[in-house]
Amino acid sequence: MKSVLITAAMVAAAAGPSFAKTVRISVSRGAGGVPVPCGEDPMNTCHNRWHPYIPAAAQADPGDTVIFETRDAFDNPFNRKSTRATVAAANLNLIHPLTGPLHVRGAKQGDVLAVTMIDVGPGPDNFGYTVAVPGFGFLRDVFTDPAIVHWELGAPAINGTRFATSRDLPGVRLPLHGFAGTIGVELGHDEIENAFTREEELRAKQGFVLPPEPTDAVPASLCGPKGRYRDRCLRTIPPRENGGNTDVKQMVNGTTLLFPCFIDGCGLSIGDVHWAQGDGEVSGTAIEMNAIVTVKVEVRKAQAAAFGNWPRFESNRAGVLKELEPDHFVATMGIPVKPAGVVMAPELWIDVNSNHLLRPLRNESEDVTLAARDALLKMIALLTGPTSPAPSPLTAEQAYLLCSVACDLRISNLVDVPNYVVSNFLQLDVFNRRQDENDH
Asked: Treating both helix axes as pointing N-terminal to C-terminal, what angle do 368-384 and 396-406 enclose, rounded to 10 degrees?
């Protein structure tokens, strides 16, 4: 184990009187700087399941700066030449390859690990993508075909800001607001069992649950088809008590993420990094990229119980979220209405278990999910209609993928029964107007 940790973590010299240092958890790279697949990396710094027995990839002390080299959410199967067929063939068992776990010395079960985001940027290939995978995403019953938008991430900064652009969405550019879509600590045995049990209860009622899947699990020796714990190595797709795949776009540089430690050393892992994302990530993906993520780790002793053993995040730096807010916007408003005879995909399990109570209704009661769907469909209609603010006509598919990276779904009220309101804000700043580049 010691030799693996030394290979995996490149430790810089001690800096300053605190003796804090920098630890780098690297990945092996192939052609063009693209990381090799998680399960093939000889550095053994990657895993794609949660389990407390996954070996540590590196160690750090409280106060250290840690640099995580990461893969993208799908384990880098897409490139600039990828097509719809490539998306349709994607192996979802590989989601999400995470770099780690990082063992933080002195951290004990019951402590809180404080992770301050310092920097997030793309890997050396400077490529990103947004996809819609059949059977996944908020409107999976509406958009049933595979789709992909290719993003270029390497353009020079304009007035200090880096932008992503795409040949698939001409006239659109997204500023870099990088964050880790998946970041969290290892679950303990009790938490594993609790999560597994409650998710199995939901799956028995036909809820959308992905149970443990040994095929292509990493590490295979622990979680694979012959692994001892293959039935309790949890998938990384749902967020849980350990954080994980929260996809919270506000977890940008300057914020501090607070995770309860369920095992000694906490076991911090990072992956699924996004260049930019809309609140909701409605297609199922943001601007996905392999990345370099820099954080600082500290330990708050014996605070997990006071947190209710659930994560939080915070910032004491003024204006840390200001850049996420658009200068110009247009917003649609949704309420929980639908055509009679239609049940949206996220509520099929409720309809089945209620003797099809929802199907004949045109108005549902106090339903935020349906209100969000209504607001999103209205935004897609706006972007594809005669009053679209887009610089060139968009198809419904393009509008859906644009909303996934540039629209923010926000709850506007939770009191005006039966019609709660969700607003969908489109950042008009993403539409590239040449004169803006010359403004000073």
From this structure: 120
Residue 196 contacts by C-beta under 8 Å, 6 or more apart in sequence?
212, 232, 234
* Torsion, Cα of 316, 319, 322, 324 (10° steps): -40
Give me 153's structure tokens.
């991430």
Q: Which DSSP category does 229 fall into? A: T
* CA 385 to each of CA 315, 376, 390, 392, 417: distance values in angstroms, whole numbers, following the listed order: 40, 14, 10, 11, 31
Cβ contact 348:391 at 8 Å: no
Contact 87, 74 (CB under 8 A): no
DSSP 92-157: GGG---EEEEEEETT--TT-EEEEEEEEEEE-TT-EEEEEE-TT-STTTTT--S-EEEEEE--PPP
Where along the chain do the CATH 2.60.120.580 domains lie?
A: 2-319
Confirm if 129 and 273 have CB atoms less than 8 A apart: no
CATH 2.60.120.580 fits 2-319, yes or no: yes
DSSP string, 325-346: S-SSEEEEEE-SB--TT---GG
Predicted TM-score (pTM) above 0.85: yes
Q: What is the pLDDT along the chain (440 residues), one digit of tens a residue?
A: 434 343 444 433 333 335 899 999 999 999 999 999 999 999 999 999 999 999 999 999 999 999 999 999 999 999 999 999 999 999 999 999 999 999 999 999 999 999 999 999 999 999 999 999 999 999 999 999 999 999 999 999 999 999 999 999 999 999 999 999 999 999 999 999 999 999 999 999 999 999 999 999 999 999 999 999 999 999 999 999 999 999 999 999 999 999 999 999 999 999 999 999 999 999 999 999 999 999 999 999 999 999 999 999 999 999 999 999 999 999 999 999 999 999 999 999 999 999 999 999 999 999 999 999 999 999 999 999 999 999 988 999 999 999 999 999 999 999 999 999 999 999 999 998 653 444 43
Element (H, E) at 381: helix 368-384
- Reading the block at residue 86, the tokens are 């490539």
> Is 4 exposed, middle or buried (CB count within 10 Å of its CB: 0-12, 13-18, 19+)?
middle
CA distances from 238 to 139, 241, 339 (A): 18, 10, 30
